[in-house]
Every structure is written in structure tokens, then in C-alpha cells.
Design a protein that fits this description.
CATH architecture of the largest domain in chain A: Orthogonal Bundle
Strand order of the largest sheet of chain A: 1-2
Largest sheet of chain A: 2 strands, antiparallel
Order of helices and strands of chain B: HHHHHHHHHHHHHHHH
CATH topology of the largest domain in chain B: MetI-like fold
Shape of chain A: globular
CATH topology of the largest domain in chain A: MetI-like fold
Helix content of chain A: over 70%
CATH superfamily of the largest domain in chain A: MetI-like
Largest interface: A-B, 102 and 92 residues
Distance between the termini of chain A: 67 Å
Structural class of chain B: mainly alpha
Radius of gyration of chain A: 29 Å
Structural class of chain A: mainly alpha
CATH class of the largest domain in chain B: Mainly Alpha
Strand content of chain B: under 5%
Strand content of chain A: under 5%
Shape of chain B: globular
Radius of gyration of chain B: 26 Å
Number of helices of chain B: 16
Oligomer: heterodimer
CATH architecture of the largest domain in chain B: Orthogonal Bundle
Number of helices of chain A: 14
Helix content of chain B: over 70%
Number of strands of chain A: 2
Largest sheet of chain B: none
Distance between the termini of chain B: 43 Å
CATH class of the largest domain in chain A: Mainly Alpha
CATH superfamily of the largest domain in chain B: MetI-like
Chain lengths: ~325, ~300
């Protein structure tokens, strides 16, 4: 009797447990259904405009594709790319853009953020000023800089004239800057050592001006994350300000610097608006970055398949660049 | 040299009286000098834009240049506004930006809520998939999206072509998710006890509590929509659908030599974002710090 009662009790428990578990499971499935309902809009938009296009880009690149899809050509577009001088020139120009803009943005960004981090008066006002270009449109700002750089009547040439110096062509100057320097010294350098054109350097200066605020803000956040106690400890040990900056601040900021290096390089390869407005890719194609070339190929020449192949190779290059950064720079980053 | 070094060391350790005080004052002056020079150079292009926009066309070309207009030519703004359909461009941009902000906030809130507050099968997998979209660079999806939007969907020269492709914003989802996760579970339990459904809980409890995050996401999206150029350049044709940035670029090629008007037009294109930035600066700065928006 007792055992029987006990048994029924146990089995009742088991039944109750089974009911509870299946109820939980059912609830979890219902919750899953609801969750996907909530995720559905985002999933649809991301699939249609991010995932699918990434694969579709490769498909397009295998076709001759003008206004409409034409014939399948396999790897022809890619083979043609490898021997296309314009394409490799554009890659060189994009690389120059990265080399000229990113280290300067990082150095100025860190320096200004470091000074803004000191307890000085007017920090807020300084930050507002430095950040202002970043929120303005690159199109409007590009037009302002085009006006500053203008060959006749532009402010920069007027200033050169006031100082008694010869005027420069600025955005119309296709000659490489190294070549120009050598020329002014009375010598010459071989063509491959000519360097980026003055027009390209001018575009980079405008870009540095525009993006600097972003670097300052990120570095300020990085500086804010460093514990005050570390500075105190270093000071008690008798370290000077420069030593503290070199041995404490800089290493502890390395994840921030690495983040900026990666995102900055990737962003620089996508620069378009200010180049379109200021030079349109000229003079003599010396500011025609890869994205500019892709735009011209696919939009102005309606060679959609070929343009897509270029975009794919550019993506591959970005991946390689990111990998190199991770491999050779990332190793020296101090994540503490 | 040695004396100065010990002095600065003593002042740094804060033990001795500070003979390095004047040195420190000098340092402070140098810091301000450097920051002020940099800030002046940074703001100068805006100053030059404003000054040029208020000069007469002859004064614009005067050599040497004047750094303040002899007479303020406010009429330049009127003639710039009238020489291209800027009213239409502004209207288009406002419509596109507002639709984009509202759409992104709705789509991202729903997704972020699911990630932050629901347990469901495949959560980690879907989250990883969302993360993966950040690895797809914009230039590779540009051409296929152009084909999809203009050829398949037939949206060439429409508003929806400028809005819909941007509605799935992973940045917005991640930022909101982080914020939603901080809302205490007790609040949800209490709401459920009162017979409140999930959607009502999201709308009437989570959304009001997350206002700072929603404002940040909304402002960053508004900024991106307002300044968008390449994509609308591709998918719009004439003035009817064209946004302000494309309109300004077209105006600069049509009336490229009239620099006073061009600078006036640049000014009124920049003005709305500049005003919003000055009012809501902390949201911008916080949002950019949080997301590390693309540089």
C-alpha cells in the first residue's frame, strides 16, 4: 500500500515533470517563432541588400554585362584586369592615399587628443571645433577646398603670391611631388619615383582635415579608459611626462591605434565623394582611386561585369591588407 | 639642464614646493598655442566659405583677397537658392532621411529586442551572421545592389531606392541591443504579470527607457542619410528625386565659376547638420565612440 502510494506519487511527479519539460520546450519553440518574427525585417533587408549582393557580385563578374546580362565569359574579366595598366595605376593611387592619410590622421589625432585630455580650459570648445569637419558633407566641404585650391584666385595661391612664391597648379597638377621637389632642386628622379601627384596630395590633405575629428574622438575614449592609478604609480617612480607617454600611454592605447589603422585603411579605400567633387579623378587620372575607376567603368561606361570584377579584386586586396595588419601589427598590440 | 630636470621631477612628485611652476605655465601656454593653431586651421575653411558667400562676384576674385566682405551680399543666398531647384532637393533629402531614420529605428529595435531579451533556437548563429555583414565592404555590393534596385525592383529614380537598402543596419542593432540588455529583468516580469505582451512591453517600457540610445542611433543615421552621395548619384536621374548632395554637386558643375553662390549653396547644405551637431553634440560623440563608425 505504502509502496503503491509511493509509486503513484513518483509516477505523478514524473508525469508532472514531463508535462513541465514539454511545456518549457513548447514555450521555447513558441518563443523562437516570436523571436524570428522580430528578426524578420532585419533578416530580409540584410539578405536582400548585403548577403545576396556579395555573392551576386561574383556572378555578375563572370559575365559580359552591359545594360543587360549578356554572355558568360568565365574568368575573362579577371584575366583582362591583371593586364590592365589603369587598374594597377589606380591601386597604386589608392595605396598612396592610405600611406599619406592614415599615419598623419593617427599622429595628429593622438597628439591633439593627448593635449585635449590634459586639464586645460576650453577643452569642450576645442573638441567642438576639431570635430566639426567630420559631420559636414564631403561634397560641400570638397567644394570649399576646391575653391581654396583654385589655380586663379584661390586663397592658397594668393598666399603664395603674397610671400613672393610662384603659384602652384594644386588640383590641376598631375606631376608627382617628389619629381617637383627634385625639379626645384635642379635634378630629376626616374618616373617610377615621381610619387603621388600634387593633386592627390591636395585631396589627401582635405581628407585628413575631414576625418581628423573621428580619430581624436576615438583616441579620447581610449585615453579615458586608462586607469589614473597607472599614471600615479609611474609619477611616484619618478618618470617624466615623456617617459610616461612613451611607456604607459602609448602601449595601453595600442588596441585603439590598431582599430583606427584597420578601419581607417578600409575606409580610405572607399573614399569617393570628395575626389569626385574636387578632381573627378583627374588631372591625367592621377587621383583616380580604385573606387573611382570602378564607378567610371560600371556607371559611365556601362561595363557592369568588368566593374564587378574590379570590385571583387579590391575586396580581396582589402582582406589581404587587413590580414597583413593583423599579422604584423596586431602581434605587437597590447590587449591588457 | 640638470636643475630643470630635478625641478620638474620634484613638482611631479608633488613633495617639494614647486620651482617648476613657471615652467608649467609655459607648458600650458604652449599647449594652448598648439591647440588654438590647429583649431583655427580646422575651422578656417568654414570661415572662408562664409566670407566668400557674402562677397560680391568682383570682390571674390580680388587680389590680394579681402578677409571680410566690404559689403555683406546676402542676396547671394537668394540667387543661389533660385538658380537650382534647391527647395525640391531639400524636400527630397528630408523625406529620405526621415523615412530612413524611422525605418532603421523600427527594424533595429525589433531585432535588438529579440537578441537582448529572448532565448531562442539558433540565436548565436543568427548573431554571427549579422556580425558577418560588417565584413562585406560597401564597394563590392554597390554594383549588384544597383542591378537589384533599378532592374529587378524597378525603383530607378524613386525615394524607396534611397531608403530601403539601408534599413537593415547592423550597427544600429548592436548598439540598441547593448542598451536593451541593461534593462532589468524584474521590469519585464512585472509587466508580464500585469498581462503586458512582448510588443507592448517593448513599445511602452523599453523604448522610452532607451531614449538616449535611440537618439544616438537616429542622429547618426540622419547624418549618414543627409550626407549620402554616391548611391543617390547612381539611382536618381533628375531634380524630382535627387537629394541635396547630388543637387549641390550638379550645381557646382553647372555654375562652377560663380564662387560666391557656390559657397552660399555649400553653406545652406552644411547648416542643418552643423546646427543639429551643435545642439546634440554629446549624442554624436558618444555614438561614434560606441560604434566606431566607419572612418
Amino acid at each position: 500500500m505504502v509502496t503503491l502510494q509511493g509509486e503513484t506519487a513518483v509516477s505523478a511527479d514524473a508525469v508532472r515533470e514531463a508535462v513541465r519539460v514539454s511545456g518549457l520546450r513548447r514555450r521555447r519553440w513558441r518563443q523562437t517563432a516570436v523571436a524570428y518574427l522580430y528578426l524578420a525585417p532585419a533578416l530580409v533587408f540584410l539578405t536582400l541588400f548585403n548577403f545576396f549582393p556579395a555573392a551576386f557580385a561574383f556572378y555578375i563578374s563572370l559575365f559580359r554585362w552591359g545594360l543587360i546580362q549578356e554572355e558568360f565569359v568565365g574568368a575573362t574579366n579577371y584575366v583582362r584586369l591583371l593586364t590592365n595598366e589603369d587598374f594597377w595605376n589606380s591601386i597604386g593611387i589608392s595605396v598612396w592615399y592610405v600611406i599619406l592619410a592614415i599615419p598623419a590622421e593617427m599622429a595628429f589625432g593622438l597628439g591633439i587628443a593627448y593635449l585635449l585630455f590634459q586639464p586645460i580650459r576650453g577643452r569642450g570648445a576645442y573638441r567642438t571645433a576639431y570635430f566639426l569637419p567630420y559631420i559636414t558633407s564631403t561634397v560641400a566641404a570638397g567644394l570649399v577646398w576646391r575653391w581654396l585650391y583654385k589655380r586663379d584666385g584661390g586663397l592658397l595661391n594668393e598666399i603664395l603670391a603674397m610671400m613672393g612664391l610662384p603659384s602652384l597648379l594644386w588640383l590641376d597638377e598631375p606631376d608627382g611631388v617628389f619629381q617637383m621637389v627634385a625639379h626645384s632642386l635642379g635634378t630629376a628622379v626616374p618616373a617610377w619615383l615621381g610619387g603621388p601627384s600634387l593633386a592627390m596630395v591636395a585631396v589627401c590633405v582635405m581628407s585628413i582635415w575631414h576625418y581628423l575629428g573621428f580619430y581624436i574622438v576615438i583616441y579620447l575614449a581610449g585615453l579615458g579608459n586608462i586607469s589614473k592609478e597607472l599614471y600615479e604609480a609611474a609619477r611616484i617612480d619618478g618618470a617624466g611626462e615623456w617617459q610616461i607617454f612613451r611607456r604607459v600611454t602609448l602601449p595601453l592605447l595600442s588596441p585603439t591605434s590598431f582599430f583606427l589603422l584597420i578601419t581607417g585603411s578600409i575606409g580610405a579605400l572607399q573614399a569617393f565623394n570628395q575626389i569626385y567633387v574636387m578632381t573627378g579623378g583627374g588631372p591625367l587620372d592621377t587621383t583616380r582611386t580604385v573606387l573611382m575607376l570602378i564607378f567610371k567603368t560600371f556607371y559611365q561606361q556601362t561595363r557592369v561585369g568588368y566593374g564587378s570584377a574590379m570590385a571583387f579584386v579590391l575586396t580581396a586586396l582589402i582582406l589581404v591588407l587587413t590580414w597583413v595588419n593583423f599579422r604584423f601589427v596586431g602581434r605587437r598590440v597590447n590587449y591588457d | 639642464m640638470v636643475g630643470a630636470e630635478t625641478a620638474s621631477r620634484q613638482s611631479a612628485s608633488g613633495v617639494a614646493a614647486r620651482p617648476g611652476g613657471s615652467l608649467r605655465a609655459l607648458f600650458r601656454v604652449a599647449v594652448h598655442g598648439f591647440l588654438l593653431t590647429g583649431a583655427t586651421l580646422t575651422v578656417f575653411p568654414f570661415y572662408w566659405m562664409l566670407v566668400t558667400s557674402l562677397k560680391s562676384n568682383t570682390e571674390v576674385m580680388a587680389s590680394p583677397p579681402t578677409f571680410w566682405p566690404k559689403a555683406l551680399q546676402w542676396a547671394n543666398y537668394g540667387s543661389a537658392w533660385a538658380s537650382a531647384p534647391f527647395g525640391r532637393y531639400f524636400l527630397n533629402t528630408v523625406i529620405v532621411s526621415v523615412c530612413q531614420v524611422v525605418g532603421v529605428l523600427v527594424v533595429a529595435s525589433l531585432a535588438a529586442y529579440a537578441f537582448a531579451r529572448m532565448e531562442f533556437h539558433g540565436k548565436n548563429a543568427v548573431f554571427t551572421v549579422f556580425l558577418a555583414t560588417l565584413m562585406i565592404p560597401g564597394e563590392v555590393t554597390l554594383i549588384p545592389n544597383f542591378v537589384i534596385v533599378t532592374k529587378w525592383l524597378g525603383w530607378y529614380d524613386t525615394y524607396q531606392a534611397q531608403v530601403v537598402p539601408f534599413l537593415g543596419s547592423v550597427f544600429a542593432i548592436f548598439l540598441l541591443r547593448q542598451f536593451f540588455m541593461t534593462i532589468p529583468k524584474d521590469l519585464e516580469d512585472a509587466a508580464v504579470m500585469d498581462g503586458c505582451g512582448q510588443l507592448r512591453f517593448l513599445w511602452s517600457i523599453v523604448v522610452p527607457l532607451s531614449r538616449p540610445a535611440l537618439i544616438t542611433v537616429g542622429l547618426l543615421n540622419f547624418l549618414a542619410a543627409w550626407n549620402a552621395f554616391l548611391w543617390p548619384l547612381l539611382v536618381t536621374r533628375g531634380a524630382a528625386m535627387r537629394p541635396i548632395q547630388v543637387g549641390l554637386s550638379a550645381f557646382s558643375t553647372d555654375g562652377g565659376t560663380r564662387y560666391a553662390e557656390l559657397m552660399a549653396a555649400s553653406t545652406f547644405v552644411i547648416l542643418p547638420t552643423a546646427v543639429i551637431y551643435l545642439i546634440a553634440q554629446r549624442y554624436f560623440v558618444e555614438g561614434i565612440t560606441r560604434t566606431g563608425l566607419k572612418g
